[in-house]
Amino acid sequence: MLGKLQKCVELGEKLGAGFVEARFDDLTLRTLYRVNGTWKDIILRSRAGVGVVCYYGGASGYSFTSSDDHEELEQTVNKAFKMAKASARAVSLKLDFDRKPSVKSQRADTFQVKIHPQAENLGYKTELVNRTVEKAQESGKNITNIMGLYGELHGRKLFTNSEGSVVDWNFEIVDLQCRVTSKTASGDLVNGAGRAGGTVGLEHFNTEGSTPEDIGNEAGAHAKEQLKARPCPAGVFRALIENRLAGVLAHESFGHLSEGDFVVVGGSPLAGKIGARLGTEHATIIDYGTPNISELGGLWLPYDDQGVKANETTILDAGILKHYLHSRGTAHHLHQEPTGNCRAVHFGFVPIPRMTNTYFAPGDLTKEEALELLNTGVYAIQTLGGQVEGDGSFLFKAIRGYWVQNGKIKEPLREVSLSGNILDLLSKVEGATRDLSIHAGYFGGCGKSGQAPLPCGLGGPELVIGEVRFGGKAS
Amino acid sequence: MEYENLKNALLSNVDMGLKYASTVDRNAEFELYLFYQQRTLVNITQGVVDAADGIVEGNAVRVAKQNRLSFTSSSGISIERIKRSVNEAVASLRSVSIKDTRFKRFCEPKKPGKEGAFTDKILNLGKEELIEIANGMVKEAQDFDKRIHTVGSECAAEWGGFAVGNTLGLQQASRSAINRCEVYCIAVAGEERRTAWEADVTRERLIKTSGVGVEAARKAVNLLGAQKLNKTTVLPTIWSPVAAAAYVVAGLGQAASGEHVVEGRSPIADKLGKEVGNPKLTITDNGQSPSGVNTDAIDAEGHPQQKTTLIAKGELSQFVFDTYYAHIYGSESTGNCARHSRPFGSTLPYETSPSILPKNMEVEPGRKSLDDLIASIDGQAILIVDTPIGIFHSNVATGEFSAVAQSVFLVEKGEKKFPLQPVSVSGNFYAGLRQLLAVGDDLEKTIFAVETPTLIFDGFSIVG
After folding, report:
1. Interface touch A391/B73, C-beta < 8 Å
2. Residue pLDDT, tens place only, B384-441
3. Chain B residues lying within 8 Å of A384, measured CB to CB
4. Per-residue pLDDT reduced to its tens digit, A39-83
5. Mind telling me how many Å the CA of B45 is from chain A's nearest CA?
6. What stretches in chain B show pLDDT beneath 70?
7. Higher confidence at residue A7 or residue A89?
8. Which of B95, B100, B463 sits opposite A122 (nearest CB)?
């Protein structure tokens, strides 16, 4: 396949492109989905295709095909070049970049797991789901629905370009989840969830805290606890944000605003603010494609879809804005180095600046000290996702929470939503715990410019925040 | 591939694929789905141009045997790729003994419905023309007001179709061509940044080449000078058509799904024939609306698409179903099987296993204009003029939502006063239907495939 991609590059250059990138994805996706006693989905997907970017006159054109036929590939290159040429007439902000020495990947760039999902049969994986659901079933007669999900995504990613780079590695991610719905005495439905995954082998589901029984138990127990939870009060309160939710905060509210494509066009409130204080000394945010997975968890992304090696990028350093997340073009325009953040959700899309693993750096508080510092407010836990707008406004959902009074956990709260403006919020981070964890999975993912769901890792320690707006029930 | 020949070409491969499948296992039932779409997309933001042009094509195979089911998909629609999917689906079925005792059969052949409106002008919409339109939109937005700081525009044209066949003798196909544009603006005054967007999505004509940029810019500028509400309270909320559309999709759009009903996740599962909303409320799902962006002759498993009344004068009339969940519920499919639904759904629809989604929802309009509705407010209310962020991050089971309405105005004593800084709006979707105060006459097609007028709800919590 490499030869075919190299021919695409040659053809693009022959047509007149100043620079050409060609990539091939050959991915396998497996989804298993059980609802109560029924297997709803047993799905296998093969996703293979070629994408070509041609650069011409400061603009780029992209085309793609699911075929590896010679004629189809030629047509694909032709389309990409014609798009670039037509775009060049309209471009006024050019995102050129300098040529660099070629990049060659190594075999060791692929993360090695003990039990690769390909090594086990379907029965092994359905049993993981069965064990999860069966454990969750033990959590009471109020349960109306239990979902057990298993997902895996793995396969080859091959890239070459006009510099002669050859990047050839294997992507891998697995995920095991359980979601439980229970009915309260008054007829309201409440939820609980448990999950484990990331770039790990199936051996991960034998480790304490991540076994199918642990996941099922977590979902069931929390749904049971929610039966007696009250709605979160509406208003502005102090908050303790749990690790996974801190990750959503880092990703949704700040990470997106630091993406180079938003910054170069002035769409981000972070544009032109390198060196400015945007948060307290407790707020440090990092994006890193190859974190220490065995200790922290997360997603392994040694290269982006422009063939740039993963970087550990400190975006916000103790409250000071240091760096943006880049494609080669945005990095050159903003006089920074590429960060290995140019990614596409699949071969049907052009790579754009996206996050890899984005997380808050840990602090020095113990859990008890964090609760004490919180004093009275909301402890928000787990995540249902979130959203951010170009002005920094955000909304996140936590699956559940607790009301904390004088440093003591008092009572469970139902689904909690947090909103505000990220720049306000970062200026109110009062402390962080010592425990850093990064979370990633097959289900869900990041959405941007129509490209979703892109697997991303996110995480952090627990964060104490002085003031957060909670949506809920106004008294 | 030409638009004219598309259905025949897809159906021919479906036929060959099914014949091959029956040689692999003559005792199994097969369903084959092929998808083909040409997409051209141009995005211009502050002079940066991104453009893409390509073909999305793929196949999906479902196989069923003695209550065992499996699903396999792969990129491409050639007979070789289809054979690969068939082989993998059968291998998957044989490798594990898991039964779905609720499965009865795939969709039975029926006379198809009608394809939606079509203009061949969309087929001829080339990249140069899209670039010109996108550029024009940026320029008119920038020229509108010097406080417009950032403008992005995106224009796209896509045409294609899908075909479904199964071993019960069903073989049907449907085509569509859609074009769309969006303009996104940021208005800046000092430290204040306000965002707004405007869009045009249509299948029966070409997208508007002017006016969309101006409207986006006008909306953004109108939001400048926002004041803080400065309180936590309960107030009536006036949801403009685009905001109301998001409410309807995120709430009833999920709860009326036969899947959520059967699986015990829909709180209105036991409310059929009962009052679930104000008598002013009538909502239908119209899979045969000529201008609906999700209108097709058949749904994603080959059942004819149709019009289904969901709520009639406040009473819950019907849920929407595919064949699988209709069998379990003891009902008939309503032609709502989906693998792709605008504006949501996968960018590779053939990879998505069939689910249930509304097609084009329609809220029956009332008789009062927006001005009359505003004039009828005695005390204070919040006017929401754009999609609140987070509205789709809601949970069907609880119905509880909490969203941040960014584009909001204070209404006081019958008058629209001034823009507000973002407020959080929280409540329960289903309680909201009962707390509906009024329905406007300003019916509007929105990008969420919902046609709705302004809706006013009481009882939601506001934090601002």
Report:
1. no
2. 999 998 898 777 888 888 899 999 999 999 999 999 999 999 999 999 999 999 999 9
3. 393, 395
4. 888 899 999 999 999 999 989 999 999 999 999 999 999 999 999
5. 7
6. 97, 345
7. A7
8. B95
Strand intervals (E) in A129-281: 143-161, 166-183, 189-198, 235-241
* A431-455 confidence digits (pLDDT tens): 999 999 999 999 988 888 888 899 9
Contact A86 B51 (CB under 8 A): yes
Domain termination residue (choose one: A180, A198, A226)? A226
| Residues 84-143, chain A, touching B (beta carbon < 8 A) | 84, 86-93, 95, 121-123, 126
Residues of A in contact with B44 (CB under 8 A): 90
B86-89 long-range contacts (CB < 8 A, ≥24 apart) are B86/B17, B86/B20, B86/B21, B86/B24, B86/B30, B86/B32, B86/B61, B87/B24, B88/A44, B88/A46, B88/B61, B89/A44, B89/B30, B89/B61, B89/B62, B89/B63
Whether residues A177 and A247 fall in one domain? no
Question: What ipTM was estimated for this complex?
Answer: 0.87
> pLDDT per residue over A110-126, tens digit each?
999 999 999 999 999 99
Q: How far is B41 from chain A (nearest CA, A)?
A: 10
Name the residue among A49, A83, A350 with its Cβ closest to that of B127: A83
The pLDDT score that the predictor gives to residue B10 is 98
pLDDT for A475 equals 59
Which domains are delineated in chain B? Answer: 6-222 (3.30.2290.10), 232-463 (no CATH)
Q: Report the distance separating Cα B254 and Cα B395, nearest Å.
A: 9
Is the pLDDT at A232 greater than 70? The verdict is yes
Q: Across chain A, what does the average pLDDT equal?
A: 93
Shortest Cα–Cα distance, B349 to chain A (Å): 12
What pTM value is reported for the model?
0.90
Confidence (pLDDT) at A474: 64
Are A419 and A283 in the same domain?
yes
* Antiparallel, parallel or unpaired: β A393-398 and A385-388: antiparallel
Nearest-neighbour CA in chain A from B151: distance (Å): 8
Answer yes or no: do A179 and A309 share one domain.
Answer: no
More confident residue, B158 or A399: B158
In this complex, do A43 and B150 lie within 8 Å of one another by their Cβ atoms?
A: no
Burial of B5 (0-12, 13-18, 19+ CB in 10 A): exposed
User: What is d(CA A280, CA B8) in angstroms, rounded to the nearest whole number?
Assistant: 64
Say whether A419 and B390 touch across the interface (CB within 8 A).
yes
Chain A: give the shortest CA distance to residue B440, in Å: 27
Other beta carbons within 10 angstroms of residue B26's beta carbon come to 8
- Same domain, yes or no: A62 and A162: yes
For testing contact with chain B, the best of A21, A25, A35, A45 (most B CBs within 10 A): A45
Residues A65 and A151 in one domain: yes
Q: Which run of H or of E encompasses B63?
A: strand B48-65
Backbone angles phi, psi at A10, to 5 degrees: -60, -45
Q: Is A393 near chain B, with CB under 8 Å?
A: yes
A346 vs B42, B348, B397: nearest CB = B348
> Contact, B183 vs B198, CB < 8 A?
yes
Q: Which of A329, A325, A297, A277 is nearest to A448 (CA)?
A: A325
Residues of B in contact with A44 (CB under 8 A): 70-73, 88-89, 92
